[in-house]
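From: lab user (bench 3)
To: helpdesk
Subject: output format question, protein + guanosine-5'-diphosphate

Hello, I'm new to running complex predictions and I'm not sure whether the block I got back is the full result or only part of it. Here's what I submitted:
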Amino acid sequence: MNPDMQSTDTIAAIATPPGSGAISVVRMSGPQATAVLQSCTGKVTQARRATLAHVRDARGQVIDEVVVTYFAGPASYTGEDVVEFSCHGGMLVTRRVLERLLQCGARPAEPGEFTRRAFENGRMDLTRAEAVMDVINAGSDLALRAAQNQLHGAIFRKVEAAVDKLISVAAHVEAYIDFPEEDIAPDTTQELVDAVDAVCAELRALLATADEGRLLREGVRTAIIGAPNVGKSSLLNMLLGYERAIVSDTAGTTRDTIEESVSLGGLRLRLIDTAGLHDSADAIERAGMERSRRAGAEADLVLEVADATLPPARAELPQSTAQHILLLNKCDLPEHPAWQGVQALRISCRTGRGHQELADAITGLFLHGNGGELDTLAAINTRHRYALQQALDYLAAARTGLLSGVSPELMDIDLRAALDALGSISGRVDTEDILTRVFATFCLGK
Ligand code: GDP
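Helpdesk reply: Thanks, we reran it on our side. This is the complete output you should expect:
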């Protein structure tokens, strides 16, 4: 953030996306909010009561008839006085209202500045602030659920519980610094090691949600592969619910890779429809196949489609660490006897059979840790992951120190470093740098 920008300023921004709509909202926060409101509407409104008002220009001409809602600080989103103007939802009129607020003493808000103020005024910790953007960007039901849990403190509480336990370990160790003539008794050493181990186990469990976090935020990269004509495009269409890819009876018509997103079983799948994985002399098709091999190699999930009416001829699978599901398509027709006993999910893109089973199989594969307990679904982001890893490294050093009897001063350094790393997650021990990076990803008006 620009260091000249003071949180004593009153800030304003259009909080709704650009474009025309029924209404748009201009938001304002800061100590001058009610004064600016009075200058541009001539009104002093009661807190938390929607009030009709006219925003007027300097000559008294009406710019727009608006509904004003005033939230008196500290009981507001930012913790400061906040005024929200619901304007008619046109771009020009909304911009004019904002300009008028700026003329009357507000300054334009930076992206994320409202939420940053909420954080700085103690209205939310950093994990909750980040969750605000996760809620806005959620592309699937489960991503939304995880973001809402985070917004209500799921990650914050887990980290704080670890911090509390570590503080008591550090307090023990520091007691020995104060009484250097005493050695740490073997019983106490074991207790401290156990406490550190317990914290490490909790942190590792949280760290293990990082992959789920990425899948929830970015979606599961899904490659559909299989020989020509087995029904790959039909599968894509079934999942999408409309005709997106070209389905045809001629082998090899799906030449290009097409990427689409679909919400399945609460997860977002980023589907990559691929050219058939078969040998072809046709150069364009070969280029398409090369791309699909690459897509398969980069995927989190490979859906291998086979034709149930033909004998098995397994496609050459790309080298990857992806999860894999074999789908036996066209099961509305008689199954070829050679498939008997083969473990596969039997589906029909024509009738929709197997759609739900596929959704269940995918959620089972990717949300095994959390799928059953949606209320505690937590999905840490890259910043949390880094801090957790750092904390674990310092705790490993502290543990070794405890067991080998190094001086309490040295152990204390490691414990404090671990606490600092954990503190940076909730923003308790923060640096300007972390804050600037976190809030720079926000949209204007948030
Ligand atoms: P792709 O080349 O693997 O993408 O295969 P397509 O999706 O283009 O399908 C090839 C042919 O199989 C088309 O004629 C589809 O109508 C047909 N097809 C796809 N799925 C099914 C299915 O579940 N049942 C039946 N009977 N035909 C299917």
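A quick orientation on your result: Residues 226, 228-234, 247-249, 254, 276, 329-330, 332-333, 348-350 surround guanosine-5'-diphosphate (CB under 6 Å). Let us know if anything else is unclear.
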